[in-house]
Amino acid sequence: MNRELSHPTSNLLRTKLLVPPIPGRVIARPRLLDQLADGLACRLILVAAPAGFGKTTALGQWLAGSGIDTAWVSLDQRDNDPTRFWAYVVAALQTRRPDVGATALSMLQAPHPPPWETILTELLNDLVAIREDVVLLLDDYHVVENRDIHEGVVFAVENLPPPQETLEAAEAGLPEEVSQPVIEPLTERELEVLEELSRGLTNPEIAERLMVSLNTVKTHTRNIYGKLGVRNRTEAVVRAQELGLLEA
Question: How far is it, in rounded angstroms, from Cα 71 to Cα 120?
């Protein structure tokens, strides 16, 4: 990866690390918020829409209602410099995890920095060492045109640690095949749907109770089946009870 370092990484504008305030009157976007919640099981979520469609506001709504631990960076054209870009990323992560990225930041500020992969490897190793998940949100990433930055982001995404939160059996001493954690953790919304499934509600009844569309309920149900490794509601409820997700 070719690179040119144009300036040191001091004097970052800290207001770029603040989540923008939500306007007093906003449009409700329940389906989008559900999709964002589902995306937490993935390493990357991309929200794309034309200018003025409320992407930043929607993300702010999602974060405000979810309690997700988030590191935010509001990007602009000046952030096409790789050193500046990654310095902001590290600074944002440090607002949530102060011990993350110290070595990477020192490398960025060195007179003769190592290759980007080396710097990002140090940053990723720090993320592996922490046990709590944090979401890094890069607002207005479309303004970034620098190829080195794109390649670095791809490298980081491909090598990110998996989500730290796993769902394990609640009781010790269960059979090995039962005590295995779910391959992917269920989202908060999927857990809500699972609870309603255990009560015997139909899909339309669940949709009405949770105030989501019928298709959204069906999607969550398919995801639950896939993550629990089951084929129907009965198996899902039994498996969830074995894992301690539902009371037996």
Answer: 17
* Mean pLDDT (whole number) for 66-70: 77
Q: Are 100 and 123 in contact (CB under 8 A)?
A: yes
d(CA 213, CA 218): 9
pTM > 0.90: yes or no? no
Per-residue pLDDT at 173: 32
Q: Are 12 and 88 in contact (CB under 8 A)?
A: yes
CA–CA distance, 7 with 79 (Å, rounded to integer): 12
Torsions phi, psi for 57 (to 5 deg): -65, -45
Q: What is the mean pLDDT of the chain?
A: 79
Place of tokens 């009870």: 241
Name every residue whose Cβ is closer than 8 Å to that of residue 123 and which is 6 or more positions away in sequence.
Answer: 86, 89, 90, 93, 100, 101, 104, 156
The enclosing H or E element of 72 equals strand 70-74
Query: Using only C-alpha atoms, what is the Rg of the chain?
Result: 21
Asked which of 75-84, 87-96, 145-154, 155-164 is least confident by mean pLDDT, the reply is 155-164
